[in-house]
Design a protein that fits this description.
Length: about 80
């Protein structure tokens, strides 16, 4: 899921990607994933509760949602 297509339009491994979506709401309701990874995205989403709920609905039983949120200005950021 990435609305800014210029970020991946010419990616080397793009041919291995089965589908891409501009928004999580576009992912078909029947789609299930074993793993959903979010890197430096959640802090930019306007309707975070809806987005997280949709992502949770798309997880397969036992699936895992992992998120990385930047901590600009903190100790780890300076390191």
């Amino acid at each position: 899921v990435e609305p800014f297509t210029e970020l991946f339009a010419e990616a080397v491994g793009l041919a291995r990607v089965r589908a891409s979506y501009a928004d999580v709401c576009e992912v078909p309701a029947e789609a299930r994933y074993d793993r959903i990874i979010s890197t430096a995205v959640l802090e930019h989403i306007c309707d975070l509760p809806l987005t997280l709920a949709r992502a949770a609905q798309r997880l397969a039983p036992g699936g895992v949602f992992k998120a990385a949120i930047p901590s600009e200005g903190g100790l780890l950021w300076r390191l």
